[in-house]
Amino acid sequence: QKEVEQNSGPLSVPEGAIASLNCTYSDRGSQSFFWYRQYSGKSPELIMFIYSNGDKEDGRFTAQLNKASQYVSLLIRDSQPSDSATYLCAVNTNAGKSTFGDGTTLTVKP
Amino acid sequence: DAGVIQSPRHEVTEMGQEVTLRCKPISGHNSLFWYRQTMMRGLELLIYFNNNVPIDDSGMPEDRFSAKMPNASFSTLKIQPSEPRDSAVYFCASSLAGTGGDTQYFGPGTRLTVL
Question: Does B109 lie at the interface with A, CB-CB under 8 angstroms?
Answer without folding.
Answer: yes
